[in-house]
Amino acid sequence: MAKQTLEKVYDPQACEKRWYEFWEQQGVFRAAMNSGKPSYSIVIPPPNVTGSLHIGHALNNTLQDIMVRHKRMQGYNTLWIFGTDHAGIATQNVVERQLAAQGLNRQQLGREDFIRRVWEWRKESGNIITKQLKLLGASCDWERERFTMDEGLSRAVRQVFARLYQEGLIYRGNYIVNWCPRCATALSDLEVEFEERNGHLYHIRYPLIIAGAESQEYLIVATTRPETMLGDTAVAVNPDDERYNKWIGQKVLLPLCQREIPIIGDSYVDPAFGTGCLKVTPAHDANDFEIGKRYQLPQVVVMNIDATMNKEAGVYQGLTREECRKKVSHDLEQGGYLEKIEDYRHAVGHCYRCKTVIEPTVSQQWFLRMKDLAQPAIDAVREKKVQLIPSHWEATYFDWMLNIRDWCISRQIWWGHRIPAWYCKDCGHINVHLEDVTACQKCAGKNLDAETDVLDTWFSSALWPFSTMGWPDKTKEMEFFYPTSLLVTSFDILFFWVARMIMLGLKFRGQVPFHQVYIHALVRDAEGRKMSKSKGNVVDPLTKMEEYGTDALRFTLTSLTAQGRDICLDEKRIEGYRNFMNKIWNAARFSLLNLEDFSCQDMANNALEFTLADVWILSALQRLIADADSALAEYRFNDYAGALYHFFWHEFCDWYLEMIKLRLNDPQATKIQRYSTQLTLVTVLEQCLCLLHPIVPFISEEIWQQLPRKNGHVASIMITPWPKFEERLINKEAEARIDTIKEVVGAIRNLRAELNLSPAMVLPKVLLSLGNIKVREILRAHEAYLRSLCKVGQFEIGTGLTRPSGSISAVDQYGEIFLPLAGVMDIGQEIQRLQKAVNQTKEELEKVEGKLNNPAFVEKAPAVVVEKEQLRRSELQEKLSKLLSNIDKIRL
RNA sequence: GGGCGGGUAGCUCAGUCGGGAGAGCACUGGCCUUACAAGCCAGGGGUCACAGGUUCGAUCCCUGUUCCGCCUACCA
């Protein structure tokens, strides 16, 4: 790429697309399978095929991209598998809405045509998120893209289903499940969201049957759902409840239905709740279902699949649940059966897809037995074969896994993996098989009905880490990349997805699907509220990427990713990091301007002549590399970003670049000297770009491509070797010297600022009176830095210097600073300024003396700590006396 | 009901071994200093939620209280 002068302001739009295309062209996203190298792999949490990029995706994929880019630079065989999820209910909803717009529904189309329509939709609109992830810079191996409904993954699903069925882990049966009347399908327990709602507790009188006839006596039951009474088949009381236990075995008359139902005794009933009498509706309540099984009560389903009342509801047939509740309540009151209605707040289950109130209903479904699958998965986490990060999620994981319940895996929708079961109409045998069954395996009859239900989408997701790699076939991918190294996900799908992958991975591969799981937080708005369309506080990552640049957004998200914390995203932060991108840009601009006459040469290290600044920055860079490495290794993303931010801006730009201006602008500098500093400059800049690259891929590539470098270099920063920490470059002496210089420069600048001296004004002379000979030596040796960084014409550096008359003074840990400003200074103001310093020093001194005067402290604290305090005391005492003496002499 | 996380500067948050409280943003003052005003220099600002305890010493460890958030659960 030709050299060019950089613009003053970084323009992300101008380069992002260009570099992404360049990377694709170069094939650098493709997984290498080089047998000499270690492997690193991640499978993406597959976004819904209907999805578009939201801020959570942006975070999730930025973190994955950071790890993958980092490992790729470290030389691993790196694979990041991308793919999408067929999202059964969500996708079906989308296509159904499209049909509705044309006045059609899926029943009119028929199953086959409908499925064809979904595939068409997927072809046209199913790759939105793919394009958006590319905009985000994601370095997935796009050639290995998978879809949960594609041929290979479908085969994996069937294989798993068939084996689990054969082993008796999958069974079919009539049980109570969570039914969504809007989606017209069963849901798993996890797909129900409970929310507190204001409701009512209806107290209803159930007349007792005495001597075969309705009596005036009654039991009162309390319920939040009076409409379900139409399906009541018993009333239960606690057998120890002396108010009622005499009635056990008797009957009550069910109001409105004129049905006699038994009174049973069951310890499930809490005598303290409500009236102590519980109406039992086995077909519409999960607990009642259990009670019903214990007493062989009939199950009366009173609703249709859309939650309108069915013929069992008698006169209420055809009403919706809500209408029926009103009517029942009204009729009870009319009949004198309603004791009272109380306000009552309780949790109501809603469909996680469409928010419709769930109707617990008995129906014929398929289930996966979980207990046996859970145990090895619990052990795997306990034994750290799968490491959850942060580890406090383990508690949540164990709690759920230990109380796991069977998983309802069948869905009454059309879009999804059809359950591979065929019912023989001749002998009743259920045929479950990998391939389509055309003749009954038991009676050879050809009279078969295929199962119409499909599987829960999460069933196929559970196989994702190995199904995407070609399992059940033996593939090179499986050999190289399974188990995967890391999974990056959000905690809200820990049970939905992570736990199930561990269980099925262990079951079918005998190995965990991933070694580590990094669980990140939710992105909230600046006030910490969950983002939602209804609140209107959604931050659209794509808009922000356009406004501030993709790198700025990525850096922001990374900086805010501290473990165990939610992320509160304030747009101000994005702006701030956009500014950081610009800072990087301008530092590069400065560097390139000063590297125009530079070309890399082979030169022995000992022939070079480095400045103190050069030696120091190389040393500081080593510390940065070490910090970045350890932060990444421990997934402290915020520390990783923070270390880079601090080093680049506040060490490299603020100090190093300012210091080397001296040499770069010095016409007296020899070629070797100039070359040495230029070499340091380009080295540090390049290594910073490499360290930054995983977070900010675009700007780092844009600048990197323009750096002068040796021949035979690689094509992209993406495949440049990751910087290596070099112990030999650590130079504590240089670091200490720079610290001293920074300290003195700071003190002089502070004085200037407090006196309101214009930065443009060059102070003719400054005196430094320093007690320590080493400090004097350092400052004398590097006086040039002081002169340029403090805008001072001349220094007098010595010890015990007398304060020139009419001088401003300051005292710091090294000694005294005098600015001779005869005639300019305001004595009153100066006394005030010094007095303030005196007060501060006194306060600190009191604290230290408090400690040292405490005999227990001197006796029990470690010697090092005590010595430290003693040293501090003497320093403060000396500072105080100097300050006081300066006030004393102020008028001289 | 059970569990988890949190309460540190005006805001959002760091704080790894218990030993002089930090960052970013915001704010104040001064500067268009030949990379950058999306910038430079300097500065102000905190009873580390509250109460006890352990310790020579607690933001940090222990106990309790309180507030906020989340997860989970078969009290109708």
Describe the structure in your own words.
The mean pLDDT is 91. The protein starts with 11 loop residues before the first helix and ends with a helix. The protein has 28 helices and 28 strands. Helix 2 (55-73) links the parallel strand 1 and strand 2. With 892 residues, the chain is α/β, with parallel strands linked by helices. The structure holds one RNA strand of 76 nucleotides.
Q: State mean pLDDT (0 to 100 scale).
A: 91
Shape: elongated
Count of beta strands: 28
**Share of β-strand residues:** 15-25%
- N- to C-terminal distance: 66 Å
Quaternary assembly:
single chain
Q: Low-confidence segments, ≥5 residues, pLDDT <50?
A: none
DSSP helix count? Answer: 28
Largest sheet: 7 strands, mixed
Portion of residues within helices: 40-55%
Provide the descriptors you would attach to this structure in a database record.
single chain, alpha/beta, seven-stranded mixed beta sheet, four-stranded antiparallel beta sheet, elongated, RNA-binding
Nutshell version of this structure?
This protein has about 900 residues and is of the alpha/beta class.
Question: How is the topology of this model organized?
Answer:
Blueprint lengths: L11 H15 L12 E5 L11 H19 L3 E8 L3 H14 L4 H4 L1 H15 L2 H9 L4 E7 L3 H16 L3 E11 L4 E3 L4 E19 L2 E11 L10 E4 L13 E4 L4 E7 L11 E4 L5 H9 L26 H14 L3 E14 L7 E10 L2 H12 L4 E3 L3 H10 L4 E2 L1 E2 L9 E4 L5 E3 L15 E3 L3 E2 L1 H5 L2 H4 L8 H6 L2 E7 L3 H16 L4 E7 L2 E3 L15 H8 L1 H10 L7 E3 L1 H23 L18 H22 L3 H28 L6 H22 L4 H8 L27 H23 L8 E8 L2 H9 L1 H8 L1 E7 L8 E6 L2 E6 L6 H26 L2 H6 L2 H26 L4
Parallel strand pairs: 1-2, 2-3, 8-10, 14-22, 21-22, 23-24, 25-26
Antiparallel strand pairs: 4-5, 4-13, 6-7, 6-9, 6-12, 8-11, 9-10, 13-15, 16-20, 17-18, 17-19, 25-28, 27-28
Helix pairs in contact: 1-22, 10-11, 10-15, 16-17, 17-18, 18-20, 19-20, 19-21, 19-23, 20-21, 21-22, 23-25, 26-28
The protein binds one RNA strand of 76 nucleotides through strand 7, strand 11, helix 8, helix 11 and strand 24.
